[in-house]
Amino acid sequence: MTDITAQSAPGARFLTRERIIKWTPLLVLVFLVLLFPFFEWLEDFGAGKEHMYLADSRFFSIRNAARIFIAATPALMVAIGVTFIIIMGSIDLSMEGTVSVCAVIFAFAFIGWGGTLASWAWLAIPVALLVGAALGFINGLVHVRLKIPSFMASLAMGFVGTGLALLLTGGDRIRVEDELFRSLLTVRWFNFPIMVYVAAVMLLIAWFIQSRTTLGRNFYAVGGGEELAHASGLNVNRVRIMGFTLAGVFFAVGALLAVGRIGIAETATGNNFMFVSITSVVVGGTALWGGIGGVWNTLVGVLIVNVINNGMVVIGLPNFLQDGVLGILVILAVVLSTDRKSVSFVK
Amino acid sequence: MSFIKKFIEQEKISRRNLLLASAYGISGAAAMRMFGPSPVQAATYADPTIAWSYRNRTNPYWNEIVSGGEAFVESLGKPKDSLTHLINEGSSEKSLADVKALLAKTNGELALAIDTNDAPNCRPVVEACAGAGAYVSTLWNKTDDLHPWDFGDNYVSHMTWSDEKPAEQTARILLEAIGGKGGVVHLGGIASNNPAIERLQGLKNALKDYPDVELLDAQPADWDTQKANQIMSSFITRYGDEITGVHCANDTIGYGVLEALRAEGMSVPIVTYDGNPQAVELVAKGDILATVFTNPHWGGGVTAALAYHAATGAFKPSEEPNEHREFYGPTIMITPEDAVEFKAAYLDNVPTYDWKDFWGPSNGQILYK
Amino acid sequence: MYELRQVDKHFPGVHALKAVDFKVNRHEIVGLVGENGAGKSTLMKVIYGAYQPDGGDVLIDGTVVRFQNPRMAMDHGIGMVFQEQSLILNLTVMENIFLGYEQQFVKLGVIDWKAMSEAARRQLAKVKLDIDPAMTTSDLSFAQRQLVELAKVLTLEERIDGDLVILLDEPTSVLAQEEVELLFSLVRDLTKRASFIFVSHRMEEVLELSDRIYVMKDGAVVDVVAHDGADKDAIQHKMVGRDVDKEYYREQKQKPYDEDKVLVRFDGVSSGNRYTDISFALHPGEVLCLVGTEGSGREAILRTIFGLETPTKGQVTIKGETISRFTAQNGVKLGVGYTPRERKIEGIVAGMNVYENMTLSQMGNYASAGVLKVNEEKSLARTWIERLGIKTPDVYKDCGGLSGGNQQKVVLAKWRSAGADIMLLDHPTRGLDIGAKEDVYEMIREMCAAGVGVVLVADTLEEAIGLSHTIIVLKDGAFQKRFDGKPGSKPSLYDLVHHMI
């Protein structure tokens, strides 16, 4: 009699804990989307101007939605990559270096092979994806074969990446001016630039991987119970390495979209992606210890972060408050998504 | 194996000697200070190690500074890599520790050019150098109460730039271009950075003469292209067509702003700062109205040159007037009219500078408010 | 002086303690025996304050007390020497001894290590252990650690004015014979100062040391015998005495197994010190039950068959193939299925739903080029939900939210649907209610009928006897006896217990 398994109560209630946790991020997003127009209304009301809530909102408009999406797409790709890793219960902090290297190599290859998508320069795109995959693969190999904790291995790989990008550029920026490539940003279908559609397609691919492939299933199995995955005959190490490789590919896509958005590839292209992507994944409700969450959570998380960034400026709040608000959100997200009774040690 | 062993042995011995020497040097310097400024000529060296200590090379601005240092070293007939790089990665502690290590290694035979990362760090660095008998020239960061002439010959010089005036000039160009009315936004550097504060102040000074122009908003964009891009698109949401001009704290921010405008199909006049090659090209094309060139290449070169020539005894800093010890670096305004000419002169060919003309392009003695 | 009156303790689905009366007198050593699951651990946890009873009273010297936590119990002089040693291995001996009570050595905010070392030496002297208190605990032998553990509890002596009650939970399980004798003489010595409650599987030791012995069964105290009146056989009968319900274990469905074919064969297999020189054969349709106390090597044998543990000696043959590489992947490939005791850790992935759990070990069969055929997975899951009567609203239900019995069925379905014909069941009914247990028994019979060989580590001896064709009794990793369990001529509980302890 050392252990007695508790029987779970029949879950007939509508507002179960799991349900609340599952939908909280989306509710937060909706709340934020309605909150910022309220501040706008308040401002105009104070100034005695006519203002119909939402209808007259500058924030709550298609054009601003497009702006938020443009800002969000590169971060979304990077965050999706790291989502897979976090589902496995590991973490990948190599994104800043990987993004920089992919962006820089892409730009060099693109310029070197003709400088326009209409020439052989389009090959620079698969090359960048391969570079991302290779960096992720090495990352996974270092983590698994040398048995270095993933956060340390990937952090180190990130530094290697940043150094490599610096070595390649010597600190310079490379401009990618091709109109065809920049149409990612400049050409709009139904109010949204092409890069948003590219990101949407990648999101669907990620969703397919997550829900419809053995690889995706294995991520959850490893994250939910590594022992068990092992005891079910899975090659856990192989799953891990493939996970890091896949993440590298998504980082590369993020790099391409970042270059598409700014038209510049440089060592600094990867800056801030670590904070934004990890924050987004956590705020979206993917648990840091693995097994729970997915790419839709990440989409919601990325949108929350970007809506805050955009909304704060739109309502004219000082910039330093943004980071503070984001920090509080991260803590809230972890508090809400953790059943802290079941976690005995917090390390 | 034996090679490495030998190397380690040698290092050990020389290190011990150096420690002794530097201990002696410090006490010597202390004694010197006790008796007030000494008329005695500080020791000079025939071939001092030349070093540049800075944040890192990722930033194009610092890249330019260091390339100036390299150009100077080459002008002495030495290979480029004989310049020692101390990279502090934005840490004042690392900056100081690296300098001390190098002082120990070179036995004080050092000509150091340095940005100490933050102003308070300047004093310990300068004291460490003076104590070891090394020669140091500083760039950018220094507290107002610290002056080269208080250290005899060893603290050779300090150079900085006042950004307020040039930023005011670019602002005037912008405000004229929009016809003296409408609304402008400012995207700044890291909020607590001195240049960021000065550049915003320059805009505010100019605005006093243009009562019909409103400063709609000013947000820090942390010198970052992507952040500037996001903030600009948020500004567009908030102010839309009210924005008739954009004042950017540097070129990097300007690139992000231009892309945000491009995504919206908007065209609004903008001015930037720093005069990076790509920005100059954009000025030539008319996409940017004006930028300011501070010639970091020359700044980096001449800072190293001052320290080196003082160390070799080619000139005696304590005999120079104060405006040769603390001075402003050069600023050159670049507008579409002269952009092409400027590009040809400064960017397409890096001019060969006379590194012994220490003060020619400089901008007068530093004034404290 | 320490007394429990009519103490009750319930857990969801289990009545763990039933109106237990329990008493410890001054200078007395009380033994506590019972089968696995009889309620000994729960009773001990109530005594040292880890559990709070639902009913009844705890009295010290006639006053009712209520402990919220073990620390409160310690403040009343009740200490516990843990079976799984509670020492922190990377700390020094003295730090361990005074863990949580360092305050007494703090001077001006700094720990006076010298004083602590002195004090620790005094404690160690009580257990006649002459070691440097500044040694790192991991450098000690098991026996020494056990004594340090005891020394740690004996610090109560200085802190408490009243009487001490010290619980010893299986203190001898890792000790050699002479170390056991040393410990016993020490304990007898210490009765001058403290009373002891001694819990052990080794009946001889309990008989030797205890003044009185409490016998527990199914959460109740069934007898209290004095040292002089104690008889090993009588006690063992009381521990297990219960009428076995033949219907309950589906004995009528027990069919003879196929003796001509062998699924698993062990030939003189040893694995470190966990078990030595084990031989047996498992046939299709057979339930082979490994019986022994905790740590007798039962689980290690299961893990070896599955491939999680590599034996150091002997030969393992599965379906005629001699195994050279012991990996779980290999085990799964050979058609071995394993339902571990800790379902939450090795059985199901909480967070994954029913069909995802079911196909976890056989994803290759439900995917082409890495793309899953989710519809086939779902229909498989639906088939098995119906077949085993798994109570779940749908196939999308998170397995972590199912009841224990249904989780167990999902695990069984996982292996059975993958075509496993060697099933290793480790405590498959642990923590299940009666109905769910019967479902599991039913499934075991069905598997046998389908030609599956089952190796079982049962939750109780009755279960072992009722379900098995063959019983192998183990003790301390060594083979003791093999029983045939044909219906009608099954061994008695007493037969088994006799060889177990």
TrEMBL record, chain A:
<keyword id="KW-0812">Transmembrane</keyword>
<feature type="transmembrane region" description="Helical">
    <location>
        <begin position="68"/>
        <end position="91"/>
    </location>
</feature>
<feature type="transmembrane region" description="Helical">
    <location>
        <begin position="148"/>
        <end position="168"/>
    </location>
</feature>
<feature type="transmembrane region" description="Helical">
    <location>
        <begin position="189"/>
        <end position="209"/>
    </location>
</feature>
<feature type="transmembrane region" description="Helical">
    <location>
        <begin position="312"/>
        <end position="337"/>
    </location>
</feature>
<feature type="transmembrane region" description="Helical">
    <location>
        <begin position="241"/>
        <end position="260"/>
    </location>
</feature>
<feature type="transmembrane region" description="Helical">
    <location>
        <begin position="97"/>
        <end position="113"/>
    </location>
</feature>
<keyword id="KW-0997">Cell inner membrane</keyword>
<keyword id="KW-1003">Cell membrane</keyword>
<keyword id="KW-0472">Membrane</keyword>
<feature type="transmembrane region" description="Helical">
    <location>
        <begin position="20"/>
        <end position="42"/>
    </location>
</feature>
<protein>
    <recommendedName>
        <fullName>Autoinducer 2 import system permease protein LsrD</fullName>
    </recommendedName>
</protein>
<keyword id="KW-1133">Transmembrane helix</keyword>
<comment type="subunit">
    <text>The complex is composed of two ATP-binding proteins (LsrA), two transmembrane proteins (LsrC and LsrD) and a solute-binding protein (LsrB).</text>
</comment>
<keyword id="KW-0813">Transport</keyword>
TrEMBL record, chain B:
<dbReference type="InterPro" id="IPR028082">
    <property type="entry name" value="Peripla_BP_I"/>
</dbReference>
<feature type="domain" description="Periplasmic binding protein">
    <location>
        <begin position="50"/>
        <end position="313"/>
    </location>
</feature>
<dbReference type="InterPro" id="IPR006311">
    <property type="entry name" value="TAT_signal"/>
</dbReference>
<comment type="similarity">
    <text>Belongs to the bacterial solute-binding protein 2 family.</text>
</comment>
<protein>
    <submittedName>
        <fullName>Sugar ABC transporter substrate-binding protein</fullName>
    </submittedName>
</protein>
<dbReference type="Pfam" id="PF13407">
    <property type="entry name" value="Peripla_BP_4"/>
</dbReference>
<dbReference type="InterPro" id="IPR025997">
    <property type="entry name" value="SBP_2_dom"/>
</dbReference>
<keyword id="KW-0732">Signal</keyword>
TrEMBL record, chain C:
<keyword id="KW-0547">Nucleotide-binding</keyword>
<keyword id="KW-0067">ATP-binding</keyword>
<dbReference type="InterPro" id="IPR003593">
    <property type="entry name" value="AAA+_ATPase"/>
</dbReference>
<feature type="domain" description="ABC transporter">
    <location>
        <begin position="2"/>
        <end position="243"/>
    </location>
</feature>
<keyword id="KW-0472">Membrane</keyword>
<dbReference type="InterPro" id="IPR050107">
    <property type="entry name" value="ABC_carbohydrate_import_ATPase"/>
</dbReference>
<keyword id="KW-1278">Translocase</keyword>
<keyword id="KW-0813">Transport</keyword>
<dbReference type="InterPro" id="IPR027417">
    <property type="entry name" value="P-loop_NTPase"/>
</dbReference>
<keyword id="KW-1003">Cell membrane</keyword>
<feature type="domain" description="ABC transporter">
    <location>
        <begin position="257"/>
        <end position="501"/>
    </location>
</feature>
<dbReference type="GO" id="GO:0005524">
    <property type="term" value="F:ATP binding"/>
</dbReference>
<dbReference type="InterPro" id="IPR003439">
    <property type="entry name" value="ABC_transporter-like_ATP-bd"/>
</dbReference>
<protein>
    <submittedName>
        <fullName>Sugar ABC transporter ATP-binding protein</fullName>
    </submittedName>
</protein>
<dbReference type="Pfam" id="PF00005">
    <property type="entry name" value="ABC_tran"/>
</dbReference>
